[in-house]
Structure formats: C-alpha cells, structure tokens
Amino acid sequence: MPARLRGRGLLRYLPLLPAVLLLLVFLAGPVFWAFQASFTNTGLTGRHARNPEWVGLDNYQRLLLDPVFPLSLGLTVLFVAGSAVLGQNLLGLALAVLMRRARRSVSALVGTAVVAAWVLPEIVAAFAAYAYFSRDGTLNQLLGGLGMGRPDWLYSWPMVAVVLANVWRGTAFSMLVYRAALNDIPTEVAEAAQVDGAGGWQRLAFITLPMIRRSIATNLMLITLQTLAVFTLVWVMTAGGPANASTTLPVLAYQEAFKFGDIGYGTAVASVLLLIGAVFGVGYIRLLREEKQ
After folding, report:
1. Angle 158-183/122-133 helices, nearest 10 degrees?
2. What is the 8-class DSSP label of residue 16?
3. CA nearest 60: which of 79, 43, 32, 41?
4. Which residues contact 224 (CB under 8 A, 6 or more apart)?
C-alpha cells in the first residue's frame, strides 16, 4: 500500500485520538494503578501509605480466607440477579409493552413517573429510598394504615429493600431501550400474526421477543455492569449492615480501603469485581456476535 494511502487511512482515526487519550488517563490509568496496588500493602495512613511494600498474592489469599468475601460475593450476585436481570429487565419490558398499547396520555404519564426516578441524582434517590423503607418511613405508614405489621425493612430485610430500591431507580433505562426496540417492529408482522389467530401472549413470545433479542442482550449487558458498580444506594440505605447482611463487593472494597485504611486489600476486592464485570461483558458481547451472525 502506498505511503500516501496509509497516511489517509490513519487520518480517519485522528478524531478518535482525544477520546482514546481520555480513556487512557481516566479509565485505563486508574484500573492499572488499582490492579498494581492490589499486590502491595498500601495503606491509607501511616508507614505503608508512604512506603508500600510488594506482597504478591497475599491480598488475594486473604480474600479466600476472609468469611466476609464469599458472603459479599453471594450478596452481589443476588443484588444483580434480583434488581437488574429480573427486576429492571422484566419490569422495563412489561412497561414498554403496556405503554405501547395504552392511550397516549396514560403512556406519557407513566413514562414521566418512571423516568423521574432515573434522572434524580443517585444520592438524592438513595435518601428518598431510605426515607421510604425506614422504620417510620412511607412504606410502614401505608402498611400501618391498612392495619398490617410495620417491619424494620432496613434491619430485618436489608437486601429486599436495596433490591427494590434499585429496581425503582433503574427500570426507566430498560423501559426506554425496549420502547425503542418495539417501535422498530413492523406493525404488519403483528397484524399478520393476529389474523392467523395468534393471541397476545403468543405474539409476545414467538414474534416480539425473538425480533428484539439483540436489544434484550444489549440491555442485559448494560444494566448488569451498571448494577455491579452500585455503591451509593446501598451505602446510604444500609452501609452494608446489619452485620454485613447487605455488604456487596463495592461496599466491601470501600470499607476495607477507606474505613479500615487497607488500600491494598480494598483494591484486591475491587480487582475481583472488575474481573467479574469483564466476564459478564465478554459473555454478552459473544452472545451479540452470535446473534448478528
């Protein structure tokens, strides 16, 4: 290939250079530092903050012996599966299907109400969820008015509370993704199936869902990665308690690094979380490639 043609080919990628540099500085750089710090005994204060030492795999061996780590790993899986894969994904799909069939005024009202929770700053949404699920909060006031019991949700059922709060917070994203996907389905296909005698559930199962399967895979990938990184909501509502009953991996990493001052161990937890996210991401990308082929 002549040098002039190669030069023109390289110029096509020149507009991407600022974005690549930003990714290297603000994403790849911190990730590399955190991964490197996980092999040291770096501390937040004291002698190890100034002169950290290389400890190899000691932090990862400590993870395997720490009884809190498998608990946090299980709670993270529960949190992601309950609030993202099942909660946000299914509820978002259901809302998108129902809003497509509803009147325009009803669809606009429901859409505005759902999106309002999503556009709130995360810290504001977290405090709103805390006020709703607290012992004297809105939920218990409603239950008391109906003559039902008033449990302390954040103490007795902390994971249920944070899962429901995250579903409320993030369902709007899935709803918008599925609304866009449903709008791309030709109306002639559904009408032809209806003429052939297919009912509503049959059209949904055998026509609608297969035609939007790539949108489903994309949505699952995005909300899974987003939910893996949720920290503020859990920290404000329960701070990982009581007795680590809601300590997900992001909360555990924060506690170890900034509450107990063990940066090395905290970054080891964060590195495991990063690897889990990478596995999910690669799996979904392979699924999308297979669907494309």
Report:
1. 130
2. G
3. 41
4. 80, 84, 85, 280, 284
Question: From the CA atom positions of the chain, what is the Rg in Å?
Answer: 24
Give 146-196 pLDDT, tens digit per residue.
Answer: 888 788 899 999 999 999 999 999 999 999 999 999 888 777 776 777 776
CA 57 to chain centroid: 29
Residue whose pair of structure tokens reads 């930003």 in the numeric block: 22
The token duo for 254 is 């924060």
Domain limits, the chain: 68-292
Residues in the chain: 293
Cβ atoms of 288 and 214 within 8 Å: the answer is yes
Among 276, 285, 266, 261, which residue's Cα sits nearest to residue 46?
Answer: 261
**68-292 falls under which CATH superfamily?**
MetI-like (1.10.3720.10)
pTM here is 0.87
Give the tokens for residue 99. Answer: 């809003």
